[in-house]
Amino acid sequence: MFHTVSFYTLGCRLNQAETAVLSHRFGDCGFEVVDFDRKADLVVINTCTVTENGDADTRRVINRIRRRFPGTKIALVGCQAEVQGESLLRSAQVDYVVGNGAKMDLPDILRQNGTETPALLLPGIEPALFTIPTCESDPHHTRANLKIQDGCNFFCSYCEIPYARGRSRSRDFDDLVRGAEKLVQAGHREIVLTGINIGTYRHGDKTLSHVVEALEKLTGLERIRISSIEFTTLSDDLLERLAANGKLCRYLHLPLQHGHDRILKAMNRKYTIADYTAFVQKVVRRVPDVCIGTDVMVGFPGEGTSHFEQTLRVVEELPLAYFHVFSYSDRSRNKSRTFPDKVAKTDIQERSRILRELSNRKKAAFIDRFIGRKVLVLFEQEKNGWWSGVTDTFIRVQVRSEQALHNQLLAVELEKREGLTVIGKTL
Ligand code: SF4
Hints:
The chain has three domains: 4-121, 3-Layer(aba) Sandwich (Rossmann fold), CATH 3.40.50; 143-368, pyruvate-formate lyase- activating enzyme; 374-426, CATH 2.40.50. Helices cover 34% and strands 22% of the residues. It has twelve helices and 19 strands. It has helices spanning 13-28, 52-68, 79-92, 106-113, 161-164, 173-185, 208-216, 236-243, 261-266, 273-286, 305-317, 345-368; strands at residues 4-9, 32-33, 42-47, 73-78, 96-98, 120-121, 143-147, 149-150, 169-170, 190-194, 223-226, 251-253, 291-298, 322-327, 374-383, 386-390, 396-400, 409-418, 421-426. The N and C termini lie far apart (54 Å). Bound molecules: iron/sulfur cluster (SF4). Iron/sulfur cluster binds next to helix 5.
């Protein structure tokens, strides 16, 4: 029988949000939840499959657990479990592989069946409205994640998320507002709305804009942040809320993926560079000082030097504050794995390096616009007497303080930039 359980999360914010909920569920079912660094009867690894790095990370974590805690049982749950199923059970030599359709039921299943629990749980994913019937708080994050949506219908050719997480579905509107209320009661001042494709949120006539409107009414909640969102799903209504300077953070992460229309088409992205550029310019006009970040992929099949150079030009010219750079990799289900003209690993590495350097330069330039100004910072953690937190525009700020600043939203004057961190003083 299992008594103690610990967790390890790979991948995106949604996985983090789900691990927090799962950990509560295990607690409700009578398990003792312990830190990952402590020996537990069972370790649950919430996996990611977006790139091949996710698979390698899973292997690394398994090896670490095997070395440190021989005899501990391991359960792989989440996206990699969903798409690789039985082969993962064999190759990773773990005790349980549990897909996205069953992971939230795992504590109940284990409680009922103990060590007789089937090693492979892959019931499939229902594309229905969902609730998250659990007491929520997000103990490991000052800025709490709130899951509002799951799955995706877009089928970008490089992506296997629609297979790993199923079709787009939304969280019951009242249920998510209740979830947000609980997070606020637990003391969280910022909520980050998470999902796979959150702009497609729908419950009846309720959209993402209604979600933000409802959360803005919660007393005690100071900030609402939208995690990554496809710009094609971002409504004028939502843009107006952003421009209104209420609780919605002046921050948008709008995946671009590539700077060349031919590659965008092969990726099955439904827009052109001109569309993206026009949208970003509209946002910048409406929301001064907004922080816009993006995702860029390098090494998609057929990406030649000229395609890459155009991407470089596009992201350099756009008013972007930073970009996350992803290396293309074939996945077990993505359509593009069959595409010809694969790009050499060395080219992918070099292109990533160039883009990351450009991103750092753009981030530094974005930060420099704020030096000397007064901003509000939500403080998260302390290290060696320095407290660190973020502005609504996602600039990381450090101040020296003897006092505990955790979860405080304080006015700070930004004095200077050191690398990509800003040093400031509280006012
Ligand atoms: S929008 Fe595209 S990249 Fe994003 S999850 Fe859906 S299929 Fe994947």
